[in-house]
Design brief:
Layout: H1 4-9, H2 17-33, H3 37-58, H4 60-66, E1 81-82, E2 88-89, E3 98-102, E4 114-118, E5 121-125, H5 133-141, E6 149-155, H6 160-167, E7 170-171, E8 174-175, H7 178-181, E9 183-189, H8 198-212, E10 216-219, H9 220-224, E11 233-237, E12 240-245, E13 263-268, E14 271-275, H10 281-290, E15 305-307, H11 319-325, E16 329-336, H12 352-358, E17 365-373, E18 378-381, E19 386-390, E20 395-399, H13 410-415
Parallel strand pairs: 5-6, 6-9, 9-10, 14-15, 15-16, 16-17
Antiparallel strand pairs: 1-2, 3-4, 3-19, 4-5, 7-8, 11-12, 12-13, 13-14, 17-18, 19-20
């Protein structure tokens, strides 16, 4: 494109008096011969000459001929579109700036494992669902974590479907578990547990192994109280943080192991993602009571993404919490339709009650896996591994199997009632 300086130095074209006389003479002659088509064509020619003269004078003609306009990088960013049903039609884009991956676990059993990537920082939250899941998780994480170090590991609570992969299987004197296979920077976990299970004992042994190899250990209470070197907010980069979210069961005991869950909010500029482990109704109610919006500390932002509480159970993802955070997207980490916990189809994950609760807020719901046969425990990808990613301007969802939202799946149509807000 010609510079503004060059353009200003160009002599603007003018139409000479002799040229005007010739044009006028031509028009008059044409009118005499044919007042129709020929006059029309000549007038068009005059207009064309005038347009070209203006383009030339303003320097725009060169750009049109040479096609050398500056490129706008924003035009390369694929956009999301909102359909008439309210679904955001994501195009499967993955932004490198900040990513949260919700993993399939290599078996029929429901469980959680979430991998977070920001620059050179690698974070793993939970490692379910069985000891054998350790190798599946490691194979996936190793695609992104190239230095063999997890800067942060969070174990939300002491159930097998969240911690078994931290332990892994034993072969001789070696373990395949995450806490054995990686260099660990910081471990954050729950304060209390009612469990006396072997897997919990094995987890504590694995945790001690990581600590003996240099890992720092904090409880969620340490973080919330900014004690023992811990912090309520871990700064990952400029305008990027991992915050420990309030849970009253960091400080008092309860009969429900799920309510001990460590809750985490990720913040990337104006993008927010909330993960609450298996926090149940009582824990969610206390969380909402705390975040009453009266101060900056007690204000919880609305979020791009919410990982469904307790795998989409009927006792989590309550209306009060959803009203507070108003999620645009919800991910469900479960084996959809599995009878692992119940034969009642309505309360198999994701439950009808969960769907009824979330429907007023979003239709953009994605599920990791699906049970194909409960007797043989055959499993397949539903959406597959689900990746939330964002840059400063926007966010996206990309799934390894397909982009089909829950309400449009064959399973949903056969096993769930469509709530009013999804019709």
């Amino acid at each position: 494109m010609a510079s503004s300086k060059n353009s200003s130095n160009k002599k603007k074209p003018t139409v000479s008096k002799s040229t005007k006389k010739k044009i006028n003479k031509t028009v008059k002659k044409a009118i005499k011969k044919n007042k129709g088509l020929r006059v029309f064509l000549i007038i068009l020619l005059i207009i064309a000459i005038a347009v070209v003269a203006v383009l030339y004078a303003t320097g725009k003609l060169d750009g049109l001929l040479n096609n050398d306009h500056e490129h706008d990088p924003s035009s390369d960013t694929p956009s999301s579109e909102v359909s008439s049903s309210g679904a955001i039609e994501f195009e499967g884009v993955i932004y490198e700036d900040f990513q949260i991956h919700f993993l399939e676990l290599g078996n029929w059993y429901t469980g959680d494992s979430t991998y977070v990537k920001y620059g050179d920082i690698d974070i793993l939250i939970d490692a379910g669902s069985r000891k054998s899941s350790a190798s599946t998780i490691k194979e996936y994480v190793d695609q992104f974590c190239t230095d063999g170090k997890l800067e942060y590991v969070i174990a939300t609570h002491a159930h097998q479907d969240h911690i078994a992969g931290f332990v892994g299987n034993k072969s001789g004197s070696n373990y395949s578990g995450i806490l054995y296979q990686y260099e660990i920077g910081t471990i954050i976990d729950f304060v209390y547990s009612n469990s006396d299970s072997q897997i919990y004992q094995d987890y504590k042994t694995a945790r001690e192994y990581a600590i003996s190899n240099g890992a720092t250990h904090y409880t969620a209470a340490d973080c919330w109280n900014n004690k023992n070197g811990a912090s309520r907010s871990f700064v990952l980069g400029e305008n990027v943080s991992m915050d420990i979210v309030y849970n009253k069961f960091y400080f008092e005991e309860t009969g429900d192991e799920n309510d001990y869950s460590v809750c985490v909010m990720f913040n990337y500029y104006d993008h927010h993602a909330l993960l609450t482990g298996d926090l149940e109704k009582e824990g969610e109610e206390a969380l909402v009571d705390y975040y009453d919006g009266k101060t900056k500390e007690t204000t919880l932002p609305e979020v791009d993404l919410f990982k469904a509480g307790h795998h989409g159970s009927k006792t989590s993802s309550t209306q009060d919490l959803l009203y507070l955070i108003k999620p645009k997207v919800i991910t469900v980490c479960c084996c959809c339709g599995s009878d692992e916990y119940t034969s009642n189809k309505d309360t198999q994950f994701p439950t009808q009650q969960f769907i009824n609760n979330i429907a007023p807020y979003t239709v953009n719901v994605y599920v990791t896996s699906i049970s194909l046969n409960n007797e043989t425990k055959e499993v397949a990808s539903m959406n597959g591994n689900i990746i939330y990613s964002c840059n400063q301007e926007t966010f996206s969802i990309a799934c390894s199997n397909n982009q089909t939202i829950l309400k449009d799946t064959t399973w949903f149509k056969a096993n769930r009632d469509t709530p009013f807000d999804w019709r």
